[in-house]
Write a structure and sequence with these properties.
The structure holds two protein chains of two kinds. By secondary structure, chain A is an all-alpha fold. Chain A contains two helices and no strands. Chain A has one domain. Chain B is of the alpha/beta class. The longest helix of chain B is centred in the N-terminal third of the chain and has 20 residues. Classes of the chains: A mainly alpha, B alpha/beta.
Chain lengths: 47, 459
């Protein structure tokens, strides 16, 4: 793969971008979970 | 363009480049980058980063452009010595990585994003890392993935993971792979337990698989969305991953340095005083201490506000030195890893992208204390070649001669055939006097070791 990369036939950048897009779903869910716990904690403190 | 010289290291960037004019370093901002440069300056991002010492400060100057497509010429603050990631200790690379992520996080708040995350864009100034590439920012594009994600993983995460979990010297792979360690290679080299570390699982192992999977497929990103929340989470995930990587400096080549020498406490004080006196006599603007170990003698110059580079072959010694600098907030000392018998070469396109050690010199003064026997005996380098090398890297030299009957030299000879009949003070002096004139010398009381102050001939 290293040789193909050096010659420009393989662009690992495209795969990286696609992998980020795939991660987006995971990170989106993780952000929602964090938000939920933050809200719950602040509610607990208010109570 | 009289007296102007383009620094070829920045040739890949269409946004601009660095050039030298009358010994002063300038950066040309090209018309191509005008819009992003204006956004950087007008959004408040530049001010925020420069105020926090995260981005090198600059001033706009009225110099003529180096080429016709100049939009602006800026003069960045001076960095006394340019170092490269393969010369940094574990914590130096880690701090550079965390700085990059912190800058990216702040940039997003101002509607901008780092378009590259190269470790070569970071330098050390006043004991801490700083981003030196003012032209690394672009307007944040809503729903676009982070353009510098792959580069960050290759330049920072992969080498740090390899150094932490496999072998500390694997940062030397950065010498071969100048755009960072390929992720498939890092994934192969990392131990199995690295799969259980979330950041390494996602950003190295699965990332490498993703690159391979999409390598022969047509990728259309236009219809894909990567929200700002996801981008912030990605940055945070990388930050947590980098922060969780550690390396404990143990098993050092030198161990307890002063426990290993035959110096008494009084002799060490004598040596310190004479080296300090010699440094004051030279009044250097830049000092290289080669074989600096934990930087004990380097501090004789750095404490006088002289920028000092403390080179050592031992990653543990360099790491300890850096951690001490951090904890004491020392400003003029930069510890770097360097094997003197195989110093950093010039690398990259046309051998001009990163400079060799010699090209970054000469220093006004070099210290070579308790070093000569390691070069001449452990590595079979003749005195004449050692002297020749020092004449290329410094204008003045403080060098310690260790005689053959010294216990440290005897220790080196213990397990090898003595081929070193010519190892004597007379031959040492004769070799060095071909390049230097001896200005002063001092014999350490209670030992036969001699410290010389030499000046390069013709200086």
């Amino acid at each position: 793969m290293e040789q193909l990369r050096a010659l420009g036939y393989v662009d690992p950048g495209a795969g990286s971008s696609m992998w980020q897009i795939m991660l987006a779903g995971f990170f989106g869910v993780s952000a929602r979970i964090k938000k939920f716990f933050l809200r719950r904690n602040s509610k607990d403190q208010e109570d | 363009m009289d007296n102007s010289k383009k620094i070829t290291a920045s040739f890949r960037d269409p946004a601009g480049f660095v050039f030298l004019k009358h010994g002063v370093l300038y950066r040309q901002v090209n018309n191509f980058y005008a819009r992003d440069y204006n956004l950087l300056m007008q959004s408040g991002l530049y001010e925020e980063l420069a105020k926090k010492n995260l981005l090198i400060a600059h001033k706009e100057v009225n110099e003529a452009g180096f080429s016709p497509d100049a939009y602006k010429i800026i003069q960045p603050e001076f960095i006394p010595f340019i170092s490269y990631p393969y010369e940094w200790s574990f914590s130096e690379l880690k701090d550079a990585a965390l700085l990059t992520l912190r800058v990216q996080k702040i940039a997003l708040r101002f509607g901008m994003s780092l378009k590259d995350a190269s470790s070569y864009n970071i330098q050390f100034k006043d004991g801490r890392p700083i981003l030196i590439d003012t032209l690394s920012f672009e307007k944040y594009r809503e729903n676009a993935p982070w353009a510098a994600y792959r580069q960050f993983c290759q330049h920072f995460l992969a080498p740090l993971a390899l150094m932490s979990l496999k072998e500390i010297t694997l940062n030397q792979l950065l010498r071969i792979h100048i755009d960072g360690i390929p992720l498939d290679l890092a994934s192969t080299l990392l131990p199995k337990r690295s799969w259980f570390k979330p950041a390494l699982f996602f950003h190295i192992h699965m990332h490498a698989k993703g690159q391979r999977y999409f390598s022969d497929k047509e990728v259309r990103l236009e219809s894909k969305k990567f929200s700002r929340v996801s981008l912030s989470e990605l940055i945070e995930s990388l930050r947590i991953g980098i922060s969780s990587l550690y390396w404990e400096p143990k098993g050092t080549e030198w161990g307890d340095y002063f426990g290993n020498t035959n110096y008494s406490e009084t002799a060490i004080e004598e040596k310190r005083d004479i080296v300090s006196k010699f440094v004051s006599l030279i009044q250097p603007k830049l000092v290289w201490d080669v074989g600096a170990n934990d930087g004990f003698f380097s501090r004789l110059s750095s404490s006088k506000n002289i920028p000092t580079i403390a080179f050592d072959i031992d990653p543990a010694a360099v790491e300890k030195n850096y951690l001490a600098i951090k904890s004491k907030k020392e400003k003029n000392l930069l510890p770097l890893i360097l094997d003197l018998t195989n110093p950093s070469p010039s690398l990259g396109w046309n051998n001009k992208e990163s400079a060799s050690l010699i090209e970054r010199g000469p220093a006004d003064l070099a210290l070579a204390l308790a070093l000569i026997h390691h070069l001449a005996i452990s590595n079979n380098v003749p005195f004449s070649m050692v002297a020749d090398f020092f004449s290329k890297i410094c204008k003045a030299l403080i060098i310690e001669f260790i005689p053959k009957d010294d216990s440290q030299v005897q220790r080196l000879l213990r397990n090898r055939y003595d081929l070193f009949g010519s190892y004597s003070k007379e031959n040492f002096k004769e070799a060095f006097e071909n390049f230097f004139s001896i200005k002063e010398f001092y014999q350490i009381p209670g030992s036969k070791r001699v410290i010389y102050l030499m000046k390069k001939r013709g200086q």
